[in-house]
Amino acid sequence: MIIVGFGLTGHYVAKALKKVEIPYIILELNPETVAAEKKLGENIVYGDACREGVLEFAGIRKAQTIVITIPQMDTVKAILTNARRMNPKIGIITRSRFISETAELYHLGADEVIVDEKETALQIFHRILSNQQVPVQDADLFAKQARSEIYDKYIEKPIHSNIRMSAKGSRLDMIRIRAKQAGEMMAKNTSQVEQIRVEKGADIAGKRIADVQMRRNYGVSVIAVRCVGKIDVIVSPDGDTILNEGDTAVVIGDREAIGTIMIMFAEKAAYTT
C-alpha cells in the first residue's frame, strides 16, 4: 500500500496498517518529517507523488491500494490521474475538503472519497444527538441515514453499505475504510470490517483485549475502540485496553470468524434459556 502525505491522517492510516500487518510505503514532501520518521523506523521516502518517477519508485504498478491524505486538491487530482493511468486496477482512496469536489474525483478514477466537510457535519450531528441523550446505537443509526442522504444528494457513486458512521467520523471512518479496502484484498476477499457493541453481561465485558486472544484464536483484530459515553476513539488499542459494557469495538477479520466472536459481545440473556 502507498500512503501519500504523512500529516495527522497519514499517521493514523499507517498506525492502523501496522496493527493488521499490512506493508506500506509513505511518500512525503517535507524533508524534516522524512528524516525524523526514518529514524523511528518508518518506511518513508522523500518525493513528489505527482511525478511518475516517484510513483514508479514506490511500486505503483504492483500496489493494490494508494491512499492520498493531502488536502491540496490540484495535487490530489494530479496524483489520482497518474496513479489510475499507471495502474488501472489499483484501489484509490483519497481525501477531499468539500462535498462539491467529490464528483470530479470519482470521475478521475477514485474508488473512495472521504469528505472533510461532510464528516465534520456528521460529527456535529452525532454530538447533538448525544447531548439530547439519544441512545448511542440509535444515534449511530440516525447518523448513518444522514450520511446516505448527503451522499445521495451530492454524488452518484453510492457508499458501501457496511461502512458505518462513528462518533469520530473523519478520523476513525477513514481508518476503517482503508482497513476495509486492504482487508478485502486479503484472504481472497473474505475479510471485512465490523463495528460490534459490548452488550450488558457479555462474556467479553470487563476483559482486556489480550485476555480474549481474538487474533490468535480467531484471526480477528481490534483496530479501534469507542468507549461508552465518550467522543474520543482509541485507535489501534493495545492488549491492555479493557472492553466495558457499552463500548464499541471496530474489528477486522474473516466474515465467518467475526460471526463466531459476536457471541462474546452479545447480551448473556439472549443466549440462555
Describe this structure in words.
- InterPro entries: NAD(P)-bd_dom_sf, RCK_C, RCK_C_sf, RCK_N, Trk_Ktr_HKT_K-transport.
- Residues 1-115 form the RCK N-terminal domain.
- Pfam families: TrkA_C, TrkA_N.
- One of its GO terms (molecular function) is monoatomic cation transmembrane transporter activity.
- The chain is α/β, with parallel strands linked by helices.
- The chain folds into two domains: 2-176, Rossmann fold (3-Layer(aba) Sandwich); 190-271, Regulator of K+ conductance, C-terminal domain (Alpha-Beta Plaits, 2-Layer Sandwich), CATH 3.30.70.1450.
- It is built from eleven helices and twelve strands.
- The chain has helices at 8-19, 31-39, 52-58, 73-86, 102-108, 116-131, 136-154, 169-184, 209-212, 214-218, 255-265; strands at residues 2-4, 25-28, 44-46, 65-68, 91-96, 112-115, 191-197, 207-208, 221-226, 233-235, 242-243, 248-254.
- α1 packs across α8.
- The model is unreliable at 153-172 and 174-189 (pLDDT under 50).
- Return the CATH topology of the largest domain: Rossmann fold
The total beta strand count reads 12
State the end-to-end CA separation. 48 Å
Give the fraction of residues assigned to helices.
40-55%
Query: Mean of the pLDDT scores?
Result: 76
What class would the helix/strand composition place it in?
A: alpha/beta
Strand content: 15-25%
Give the assembly state of these chains.
Answer: single chain
Spans where pLDDT lies below 50 across 5 or more residues: 153-172, 174-189
Mass-distribution shape: elongated
Side-by-side strand order of the widest sheet? 3-2-1-4-5-6
Q: How many domains comprise the coordinates? A: 2
CATH class division of the largest domain? Alpha Beta
Order of helices and strands: EHEHEHEHEHEHHHEEHHEEEEH
Largest sheet: 6 strands, parallel
Radius of gyration (CA) equals 19 Å
If helices are DSSP runs of H or I spanning 4 or more residues, what is the number of helices? 11
CATH superfamily of the largest domain: NAD(P)-binding Rossmann-like Domain
| CATH architecture type of the largest domain | 3-Layer(aba) Sandwich
